[in-house]
Model the fold of this input.
Amino acid sequence: MSKIKTRFAPSPTGLLHLGNVRTALLNWLFARKYGGDFVLRFEDTDADRSQAEYIEAIRRDMDWLGLNRDGTELFQSQRTDQHRQALAQLSEAGQAYRCFCSEHQLALDRKLAASRGLPPRYVGRCRNLDAGETRTRSANEPFIWRLAIHDNEGNVTVRDTLRGDVVFAQRDLDDPVVARSDGTFTFLLPNAVDDALDKITHVLRGDDHLTNSAYQVWLLAELGYTPPVYLHHGLLLGSDGAKLSKRSGSHSVAELRDAGLLPQALLQTMTRVGHPNMPEDADINTLLAHFEPNQLSASAVRWQNDELWRWQTRLLHGLPVQALLLHLNPILPEANADFAGLVQGNLQKFDDALHYRRLLDVHAPLDADALLVGQQAGENFYTAAVSTWQTHGAAGWKIWADALKAATGAKGRDLFMPLRVALSGATHGPEMSHIVEYLGDSGVLSRLQDMTARVRA
Done:
């Protein structure tokens, strides 16, 4: 068997979203699992929508995810001549033909088929035009190119790692369009021809491409190529069971990165979607060791944002403090190792650290919720807090809290929450004993006095 080679072939017409990530990741895992190559190929033949900025964005997202590629990047637009040669070869063999039917005529055909309870396949009106008529009409009329696949006899077999051999009767297949009236190609022919030219051995993609694969297997066989082995996994749906959309969680990779997500969190979550029996180990090598393509779900699976952020929290909490600081300093330059170690267990995203700016700067602004807690506690509470801190603070958090409770009668939330917002600026966070230890005598006192002044105002 030749060396395994997979590919990720995005169209640079937009940003990478979760469905794209799954396709790229599964092909990457497959190649790395079996010692093969993984290549990146931009299917950039849609000149109106393909943009250089999306090519660069896809590169950046792939690098951020750590999905390293082998060899140079490939571009479908550089193979236009080979695509045209393939179409000419199919035409000469009678396996592709010009279709002159108008959109109006095709719509009428589909409507008639529906009224008869038949599938909306092309009726073959232009399939048997003689060469002379075809030449004459093509000089004056717009036309598209179709593959001559539909037949009352014969089968097309798609080799599938997950599903076994999937057999399509040609009587159930259409004559698909492979080139538009403006001469540009649809997905089918360039994608298949490029796989052959790039020596792609395996293609992992969603089961919505299963019929496309049948057309491509037929096309490649007619061109004399060996089709790749496919793996058609179940589609990735939103948490509501509908097709992924922004509303149901189909974030772009750029959006997730800007939200402070660690790339490993996305990789860990995505690898487990539709793949049972993955261990709870956060190492990429463990993912590779336990990745079993034939265990992927053949049915649709649902994306869960909660699982993504569960992994984010776990991985962020496990970062070495110095690594955490590399993420915190761009948004909070004054953060140091002691601060990072204190708040790390309360972060889900890196910018959550901004909630605790008061730990670094007594004059940091308070958010509305924290200020409201302070105002509800009132000036007398904070005056007592200052007094009891001056007399009992040296004995530690518990002794001080007990003294303040006795002085004010406040207890439970009414005691602890006003102190928390005064010292940390947030309504939740690290244990109060750790905050007191971190701030020290002068830090605690200055924040209590500042809060007293704020609620007095």
